[in-house]
Amino acid sequence: MPESPATAASDDKLSPEVMRVGAVVVLGTIMAILDTTIVSVALPTLAKDFSTSINTIQWVTTGYLLALAIVIPLSGWGVHRFGAKPVYIASLALFIGGSILCGLSWSVGALIAFRVVQGFGGGMIMPVGQAIMARTAGPDRMNKVMALIGVPTLLGPILGPVIGGAIVSNISWRWIFFVNVPIGIVALVLAARFLPTSGRDHDHKLDALGFLLLAPGLALLVYGLSEVGTTGGFTARSVQVSLLIGAVMTVGFVLRSLRAPEPLVDLRLFKRRNFSIATITIFLTGATLYGTMFLLPLYYQIVRGESAWMAGLLMAPQGIGAALVMRPAAQMADRYGTRRTVPIGMALLALGTLAYTQVSGTSNYTYLAFALFVRGIGLGFGMMPVFAASYRGLTHAEIPRATTATNIVRQVGGSFGVAIFAVVLQQAITRQFPGQDTSLNSFTSEHLTTSSVDHLAAAFATSFWWSFGVCVVAIVPSLFLPGKVDSEPGVFEELEEAESTNLDEVASVIPD
Q: pLDDT digits over 208-222, tens only?
């Protein structure tokens, strides 16, 4: 086996080969992460163009998040079976193809279906790219590699709504998908040229039955919840059948995973107390994060009559707050323990959300921006320490499986959050405007009276109360997270070690 470029390097800098591979991986990762938030500011425009309801349009976000979650465990098997480079290139091609189809969508149903296709491609880009980076850089350069691939994670929540708003306001919503095409083609060409090739390993098998239970099971559960907003309750046959079948398939997946030699998701990890408590907190955080990101652009554009561009700018303070405090928050967790710091983060998250429970048609923008900044600080205090806490007490072999599980839980939590908040918003609007058409087409700022604006704002305030409630509930499990243990690594170091171990573990299964 030839000496890796990282080993050959005598200085502390990343070699040119590692930098080239890193550029390819970051380029693909940026596209996948941006598409989790870039669409949010376009939802009001999409709903009006397709003359559809809030309950339906939320699937543009929910379908993408579910696809991201479901495909994560498939990426490891794909690397074994076909090699990392072919899987990465196929993921890019699938994401680009999905983006083109999304931009060409002729109906909301087609758009939702193509978003799922896009999500399947995007969900494999990051884990497979990380595996390639780990193999190319080697273990001695993992901290620098993590810093490189962590950039998109920090910038995505900030830039996504702003870029999406600028495109929707100045060009067309279709270009929030078409913009991926030239970037993706460049990434494809660079991937084919610079990514190292690897062998294949046929020893690992795909848990196909687990996948066939998990994917439709989660989709049916979310669909059943979203139908509540259309039917007005849980008594409708479509709601009951969807929830029942979804629950049965999910239970079947759990039973299958506990028995399978190579389960899609290792549910045995939930026997560990720290892991279970951390994943509950991660699920709730994902729900309020993505659910609130769904509500905010609707409020700013429908109630306040702002453009998509301005709505994107007004959402930026949350990402800025999170990016500013993420590292200091982890260092504070190192010093005081996650049990003391994470509840503070969850409380700040709740406090920032509380301001939005009082929104009106004339709420001060500076006040709302500051509240969103506080929410971002809360997210920064909660996200990294909670993920680090989930690794406490796990063995070296369990860490990669734990990373897969926690990422799936976060995306699924976001899917449920968006679906539930959409139902709450739709029902609140229906109550505020009894007997009237409550589709988004009927609400245009230039035709709304002051009374209508106040009623709409009250409906959004009701939805934000639900987000606030999720934040408050998240405080409870965070109180039972592990405390400071002097003999164990700090949170920031522990997360770096866990992520590095995960990348090393994934890389080790890529044959040379």
A: 888 889 888 888 888
